[in-house]
Amino acid sequence: MFNDFQITEGRPVYIQLKEYLKRMITNGHLIEHQKLPSTRELSSLLSISRNTVLTAYADLEQEGLIYAVKGKGNFVSHVETFKSPSIQLNWSEKVNEKTFLAEELDLMKHRVRWNKEMISFTSIAPDEKLFDVENFKRAFLNRLSIEGDIVLNYGYAKGYKPLIDYLLHYMEIKGVDTRNKDILITNGFTEGMDIILSSFNKKSGRVLCENPTNDSALKLFRLNGFEIDGIDMEDDGINVQKLKSCLANKEYDFAYFIPSYHNPTGIVTSSQKRKEIMDLFSDYQVPIIENGFNEELRYSGSHLASLASFAGQSNNVIYISSFSKILFPGLRIGWILADKELIYYLESMKRARTIHTSTLDQAVLYQYLNDGYFEKYLKKAKSVYKKKYELTVQACKKYIPYKRMTGDGGLHLFIELVNHIDSRELLKKCTERGVVFLPGNVFHTDNSGNHTLRLGFSRLSEKEIIQGIQIIGDTIKNHYGG
Amino acid sequence: MFNDFQITEGRPVYIQLKEYLKRMITNGHLIEHQKLPSTRELSSLLSISRNTVLTAYADLEQEGLIYAVKGKGNFVSHVETFKSPSIQLNWSEKVNEKTFLAEELDLMKHRVRWNKEMISFTSIAPDEKLFDVENFKRAFLNRLSIEGDIVLNYGYAKGYKPLIDYLLHYMEIKGVDTRNKDILITNGFTEGMDIILSSFNKKSGRVLCENPTNDSALKLFRLNGFEIDGIDMEDDGINVQKLKSCLANKEYDFAYFIPSYHNPTGIVTSSQKRKEIMDLFSDYQVPIIENGFNEELRYSGSHLASLASFAGQSNNVIYISSFSKILFPGLRIGWILADKELIYYLESMKRARTIHTSTLDQAVLYQYLNDGYFEKYLKKAKSVYKKKYELTVQACKKYIPYKRMTGDGGLHLFIELVNHIDSRELLKKCTERGVVFLPGNVFHTDNSGNHTLRLGFSRLSEKEIIQGIQIIGDTIKNHYGG
């Protein structure tokens, strides 16, 4: 007994001893009225200080796990170790269709497995090597010294007030008319989207969006029971003629657009098309959900206003965004900017579902933004990503036989292969050679896109980018001819 | 022009200037080809350094908002300021019944308004004055120096591995058999509960719980469309006879219990009753959701095993908990311990809804727990809260004419008033005298509890506790007789 007690570094030894003994008591390995070794004995047996044993015993006594008898030592208290008759429920019978669907649509679970030695173009998360950890620490310490106690206690469902104010200002600077608008802070873009979708009345039960579109939105449309009509993308944005004919022929509860660095195609919707879209939607009075995805990662070109900005005083655009893809995705902070009345309702849904988003994360992000670290970081990130972007474009031009390649910036390119090469088949072959990417079909609304793929380059080195694309090109050559 | 430019402290001036100009450009106050003041002029006009203006101009140029003409100066670029025809959607027509219900059940929006000068017994959040901000900072810096880049990037839906392992160990120490169990980290108890409820198959569509029970669970039952059967509480826990007869007579999808420091009654379910409950549920094969609420805040008495512990190898208990009510609610971290297969499904729902819980929060909490700060803090918190608890009990005995008072620890007491005094009516009168509390009806499953109230004392000073309870007692005397 006691000889399996092992000390882990970095955790107070008295706690480890206490937990070790507590476990033996709650498991029934030490039984009621059993005498524990004296503090002297145990300290010598385990080669730890007697004080450590004393503290552990005192804590155990305080928790009612042992009792002391003066002059006699410490004994184990009565602890219930009864276990109820063993039953095994079949949990897969207890979960509903929506949950099965969530599992089925869970790309992380079902995509090709890869390991760290491989070159992976699957991610469009920022490169953590770029992270500005030092200034993040500074922002943290700064905020905590200002109001550490408040930051660590409950906050409000709508969000942390200084961050809300900052973001309202941030949107105003971009030309958005924020009068009669409000902001709800969410656990990233995903929660924002899910709250909106689960709050919407289904009149037609139908949503209009770009085809392809980002997989997490697609998943949420499906999980929330919406039918999806996807409209294909031209090089300057959605096909407006088709959009018009959809709106003219069917009812829609809302439309969903990603005008800036569309995911997955990387296409930036032109100013002209943005205007046409906004005019159309004013006519049809259909609400728009705009995903502000990576608007900040524009490497060149003139300023482009968001749909929320074109909307002016209209209240038909719900703008969702986050800095996750640029700054710190680990923080899970996004926001919804929308009509005040709508935010009022969404706030109650947010409160019911998660009470509020981490005040700590919001407060530190606020401080980081306010102190100007974001601006500095963005410049650095842009220059690094721009270089990787250009390199990826060049390498694709050189090695990959594509029918179409799109991507005007951001952290990924989208490719349509020649000769209807199936990208899932290609992926299998590339995986064997140590390269993975995302086949484009997962982004499509209509089971198409079988010969497309998305290449995320943000987390790869320049060497890996070239090598990886070379391997993809090589694999195509070997299996499908040159 | 430019004379409304005002500098806010704590934010780099070049960013403020850039944003000021950007706003004027996107708003159309500065128009295409308009010449900007020279850097020299503007620096002198605004009394800021010329370098500041140079940096702001360079940034604006980089963003495509201005252009430089050599030898002539800086000019405003073409920026689209078109606004689509103004339309106003009626958002209240677009949100669904569930959202209206969430708004209706949103206690934060509809409860009595109070201000900071008043004495509020409404909260059962921890007292932020107790917060151990210094050690929290230490844990943060410690973790960030170990793996700052990882902590700030995307994590996994299931949670941060070191925290999951810590919590599995934590539950084992409490006597829980964790074989074939797993953990999902959630945004606090609330998200955990909501994910479970929205994942369950509704066979009977009915849930069994204690009456009263905590309002956030009640709200989620209702929002997820469950019928609720509440069973009243005896001083040692739920009325087991009634529980038995319910199970014998109706089908239930699951039961929900708060055996430790039941919210709102503060009752601790006895070991004997826990065994009886577990035996019953083994017979009926109905799953149990156990809320581990404040198990840690036991001020006295012997060790009590959780239902999850009594379950042994059975897989019928879903245990949800969080340290929010003790440690840092601002962090929003909770966990679900349950059968491995169930967690596998819930993980996909979690990923679909919020991707994952803040890695930063999880990592810092892990470090704080692992370094032993939690143990130390808990001792301090217990001694402070115990004193407040005893004081509240004494004051209630002295001043409030109650029929029943319950609360064996934790951060609140529950009172049933004599003579069927309506607690909502009493609340109105007390509010006028500067004291607020939560009327107990909001916790009841069946519109009863009109003469009950919950007194949360955690965030009040000893003086406020006595004064507040005196005022409640006084008000009762004045309006309902002594």
Automatic annotation (TrEMBL), chains A, B:
<dbReference type="Pfam" id="PF00155">
    <property type="entry name" value="Aminotran_1_2"/>
</dbReference>
<dbReference type="GO" id="GO:0008483">
    <property type="term" value="F:transaminase activity"/>
</dbReference>
<dbReference type="InterPro" id="IPR004839">
    <property type="entry name" value="Aminotransferase_I/II_large"/>
</dbReference>
<feature type="domain" description="HTH gntR-type">
    <location>
        <begin position="11"/>
        <end position="79"/>
    </location>
</feature>
<comment type="similarity">
    <text>In the C-terminal section; belongs to the class-I pyridoxal-phosphate-dependent aminotransferase family.</text>
</comment>
<dbReference type="InterPro" id="IPR015424">
    <property type="entry name" value="PyrdxlP-dep_Trfase"/>
</dbReference>
<dbReference type="InterPro" id="IPR051446">
    <property type="entry name" value="HTH_trans_reg/aminotransferase"/>
</dbReference>
<dbReference type="InterPro" id="IPR036390">
    <property type="entry name" value="WH_DNA-bd_sf"/>
</dbReference>
<keyword id="KW-0805">Transcription regulation</keyword>
<protein>
    <submittedName>
        <fullName>PLP-dependent aminotransferase family protein</fullName>
    </submittedName>
</protein>
<dbReference type="InterPro" id="IPR036388">
    <property type="entry name" value="WH-like_DNA-bd_sf"/>
</dbReference>
<keyword id="KW-0808">Transferase</keyword>
<keyword id="KW-0804">Transcription</keyword>
<dbReference type="InterPro" id="IPR015422">
    <property type="entry name" value="PyrdxlP-dep_Trfase_small"/>
</dbReference>
<dbReference type="Pfam" id="PF00392">
    <property type="entry name" value="GntR"/>
</dbReference>
<dbReference type="InterPro" id="IPR015421">
    <property type="entry name" value="PyrdxlP-dep_Trfase_major"/>
</dbReference>
<keyword id="KW-0663">Pyridoxal phosphate</keyword>
<dbReference type="InterPro" id="IPR000524">
    <property type="entry name" value="Tscrpt_reg_HTH_GntR"/>
</dbReference>
<keyword id="KW-0238">DNA-binding</keyword>
<dbReference type="GO" id="GO:0003677">
    <property type="term" value="F:DNA binding"/>
</dbReference>
<dbReference type="GO" id="GO:0030170">
    <property type="term" value="F:pyridoxal phosphate binding"/>
</dbReference>
<dbReference type="GO" id="GO:0003700">
    <property type="term" value="F:DNA-binding transcription factor activity"/>
</dbReference>
<keyword id="KW-0032">Aminotransferase</keyword>
